[in-house]
Automatic annotation (TrEMBL):
InterPro entries: Rossmann-like_a/b/a_fold, Universal_stress_UspA, UspA. Transmembrane segments: none annotated. Pfam families: Usp. Residues 4-124 form the UspA domain. CDD domains: USP-like. This is Universal stress protein. Belongs to the universal stress protein A family. It comes from Natrarchaeobius chitinivorans. PANTHER family: STRESS RESPONSE PROTEIN NHAX, UNIVERSAL STRESS PROTEIN UP12.
């Protein structure tokens, strides 16, 4: 069994790509933890209130995959890496987005930071055929 950390933001299109990536893999009975990291959360929201997380949870459960929801607060890349390490995950699934080199330099890239700072396999969900990134 593979324990996969699927880190979602609030974008439902990227979350859908991540689900499709997981479902296309040949893991034997994977267990997926859906993680949403709040960078700011003054209202005390929960991962259960994040529409993209609920979408992923529903689609994976329909496919018979064991799903757990989790939430963290702070820097997304740091929290993803720390959560994966602390919970002994086997892989991390992210959905990249197209950014210019200047955009990456100015704003950083969660995907890039995770890839460079973990020793775990990182699955990057590609864009859908109909999607223009």
């Amino acid at each position: 069994m593979a324990d996969i950390l699927l880190a979602v933001d609030t974008d439902e299109t990227r979350a859908t790509r991540q689900v499709e990536t997981i479902l296309d893999l040949s893991f034997d009975s994977p267990a997926v933890t859906i993680l949403h990291t709040f960078t700011e959360n003054p209202s005390g929201a929960s991962v259960n209130q994040v529409k993209s997380a609920r979408l992923v949870e529903s689609r994976l459960e329909e496919a018979g995959i064991d799903v757990t929801l989790a939430e963290q607060s702070g820097d997304p890349a740091e929290q993803i890496i720390a959560f994966a390490r602390e919970n002994e995950m086997d892989a991390i699934c992210l959905a990249g987005r197209k950014r210019s080199p200047a955009g990456k330099a100015l704003f950083g890239s969660v995907t890039q930071e995770v890839i460079l700072n973990t020793d775990l396999p990182v699955l990057i969900a590609g864009k859908n055929q109909s999607e223009q990134l």
